[in-house]
From TrEMBL:
InterPro entries: Glyco_hydro/deAcase_b/a-brl (IPR011330), NODB_dom (IPR002509). This is Allantoinase PuuE. It comes from the Bacteria. It comes from Actinoallomurus oryzae. Residues 37-59 are annotated as: Disordered. It holds the Pfam family Polysacc_deac_1. Residues 65-282 form the NodB homology domain.
Length: 306
């Protein structure tokens, strides 16, 4: 059966307070480092990956060198353009990083660590946990932790699955024992604790709303749309008056936002965000640590769930 649905959450009584320095919004920029870990015939997979720059598909019996090269752009050029931008603006981000992608791009991995970005585990490969057995998924989680620790010199303390977790994921993360949070939900603007058998797992929700994948899907006409879309959201969240601290996630992909025109839009939005005194631009790990300290989990054990 898996976890129960919660359609209420905080309801009319959200937690009251602010982020450090009295900030109203915690803004977390997420860089999805996946290039090199996606499905590829070159890696022995039965098919290649989609989500390239053009809405077309190659017959699955053939290797799609065009889409492969789009992913290579993210690894060869896009990630480094983004890292230069973050360094220039003094912005620390969270990398949702597939372990294999880091293994294959050690320069990018080193830069992430040296600049103080958080490396959050995004699986060993950019794979679909819901197709795995419980044992296979546990092994994949362990492999991701081992690999990222070896590549980056520090273990990941956060987890984000590809699009959605399996019904076992949250339990497995708690059993592994080293994760302070997961981001496997899109259901709130505020962190919360999810019941998992005899414990509470901190969830720092992610969002697909403020995400550069809309360039690919055709929902954004151009970079200016991205600036307007994200800026409106940030300003609105900061000016809401219910007394609750808000979280905003902006999702990026080096193969998409690493392109120059899109990077310029990202720079414009981040310059606006960092100019606001009521916005805390930070990593997901810092958000998790702050939440655990100032908004601890409920007292007692949750009711056992299936």
């Amino acid at each position: 059966m898996g976890p129960r649905r919660d359609l209420v959450g905080y309801g009319r009584r959200p937690p009251q307070g602010t982020w450090p320095g009295g900030a109203r919004v915690a803004l977390n920029v997420v860089v999805n480092v996946e290039e090199g870990s996606e499905r590829s015939m070159a890696d022995g997979d039965g098919r290649g990956e989609g989500l390239g720059e053009v809405p077309r598909a190659v017959d699955p019996d053939y290797r799609d060198l065009g889409t492969e090269s789009v992913y290579e752009y993210g690894s060869r050029a896009g990630i480094f353009r983004l890292l230069r931008l973050f360094d220039r603006l003094g912005v620390r981000t969270t990398a949702f990083a597939a372990a294999m992608a880091l293994e294959r791009n050690p320069d990018a991995a080193a830069w992430l660590v040296e600049s103080g970005h958080e490396v959050c585990a995004h699986g060993y490969r950019w794979s679909e946990a819901w197709t795995m057995s419980r044992e296979e998924e546990a092994q994949a989680i362990a492999a991701a932790v081992e690999s990222i620790t070896a590549t980056c010199g520090q273990r990941p303390l956060g987890w984000y699955s590809r699009w959605m977790p399996s019904i076992h994921t949250r339990r497995l993360l708690m059993e592994e024992g080293g994760f302070l949070y997961d981001a496997d939900a899109y259901n709130d603007d505020i962190p919360y604790y999810a019941p998992v058998e005899d414990g509470w797992q901190l969830v720092v929700p992610y969002s697909m709303t403020y995400n550069d994948s809309f360039y690919h899907y055709g929902h954004l006409g151009g970079p200016s749309d991205f600036v307007d879309y994200c800026r409106r959201a940030l300003d609105y969240l900061a000016e809401e008056d219910d007394g609750a601290p808000r979280l905003m996630s902006v999702g990026l992909h080096p193969r998409l936002s690493g392109q120059a025109a899109r990077a310029s839009a990202l720079a414009e939005f981040l310059e606006h965000a960092t100019s606001r005194d009521d916005v805390w631009v930070t990593t997901r790990l810092d958000i998790a640590r702050y939440w655990r300290e100032h908004f601890p989990p409920p007292a007692g054990e949750p009711e056992a769930i299936a």
